[in-house]
Amino acid sequence: MMADGPTPMNNQAQAQQQQEILVRKMLETAKPRSCKCGCQAYEQAIAIMEVSALDPNNPTGQQQHLNYPVLCCVKCQTVFDPMGKIAK
Ligand SMILES: [Zn+2]
Known about the structure:
alpha+beta, 3 strands, binds zinc ion, three-stranded antiparallel beta sheet, 1 helix, flat, 22% helix, single chain
């Protein structure tokens, strides 16, 4: 473990701390999102997104596979997809 020195926090650490404070504040009034099975806990999982070689956003000209983080209900494994990319 490194001791805390007098070094001032860099901007990234400061922004991260502000984000954590904001999240804690929002959690005071937020309600848990229930899965359709009633469970309120999720595990992290990774979906694989295919990017076509012909996709104008893909500069490589080859098919790409990108990691896309999603959440799975710990009980029934139903995927919660925050961006609505894969959930039906
Ligand atoms: Zn569920």
